[in-house]
Amino acid sequence: MRSVSLSVGLLLIGFGALAQQTPPWLTDEQARDVVAAAIRPVYPEPCYSTYRNEVLESAIVNLRSNPLADNRLKESVYFYRVASDNCEYVALKDGKPVRMTLVTMDCCEYGIVAVDRATSKSYWFTGDKKPEVFKQFAHDAEIRPDLPNPNSFIALYRELVWNGSDRYEIRTLEQLRNVVQENLQSAYSPYEKDNVWQKKFDHWWQRFLSRKQGLKFETTHEQVSDGTIVRGYGFRGFELTTPRSDPPPKGKPKLFIWALLLKPDGTVDQFPSKVAYSAR
């Protein structure tokens, strides 16, 4: 009788240990299903093209207050860029599963979705909700600013919240030249059909060089009573459409100075940008 009681006790302890085990993280395939579930209520499609961003995934590990979990790096967050491109899915026809292919050309970009594989929670960075989504994501993922010079934290914020052609911080003259050339080429010679863009670019670039007056591309940090103001340079080119419309393109290419206020609680406020140089 004592042996039976002991066996039952050990069995109950075993069940208790199993119940306390941490659930396994979602696989890549399961995480993509979570992404689709987040997008589908707003943009119903049978499937979506999802592209992993492993650079972002690596970046947040160093910003976490505790980068370790169960004796391994806490790489539980996957980032996906979601688009309406080409994807495959299974549909039922006459009661039988059939492999289907969805093909779309130059349609839609749905933004970035982060999935925490440990909690199965998704964070869709879209529209005007991006700043609030970032705040919630940073809280849940236990991301902390890398003070006193929070370059990595601000870079993550700009990538997820701005996520546009001007999200790249301009740090060198060569980098600026490349992004200006790319934008003007897309605007004036879409799909590389001619070389009209070359004269447009040469004119813009030579005028800029004659007026830049020792401009230094550097990120600055200013400690204020409300937190840390981070300033840097960005480029915003012509507004381009897909498929590309005929010239003249809209807008005016500009080099600008952006400024973000990082508060002690991790909240980020954006100040109006200042134009450093602008011309067509």
Could you estimate the helical fraction of the residues in percent? 25-40%
Q: What fraction strand?
A: 25-35%
Work out the helix count: 7
Described by its quaternary structure, the protein is single chain
Largest sheet: 4 strands, antiparallel
What's the average pLDDT? 86
Unreliable segments of 5+ consecutive residues: 8-12, 14-19
Output the strand order for the largest sheet: 1-4-5-6
List the helices and strands and how they pair.
Layout: H1 2-20, H2 28-39, E1 49-52, H3 54-61, E2 68-69, E3 72-73, E4 77-93, E5 96-116, E6 121-125, H4 130-140, H5 151-162, H6 173-188, H7 196-211, E7 220-224, E8 227-236, E9 254-262, E10 268-278
Antiparallel strand pairs: 1-4, 2-3, 4-5, 5-6, 7-8, 8-9, 9-10
Helix pairs in contact: 6-7
What does this structure look like?
This protein is of the alpha+beta class and 280 residues long. The protein has two domains: 23-144, no CATH class; 153-280, no CATH class. The chain is 34% helix and 31% strand. The chain contains seven helices and ten strands. The strands form three sheets. A four-stranded antiparallel β-sheet has the order 1-4-5-6. It has a four-stranded antiparallel β-sheet with strand order 7-8-9-10. It has a two-stranded antiparallel sheet with strand order 2-3. Strand 9 (254-262) and strand 10 (268-278) form a beta hairpin.
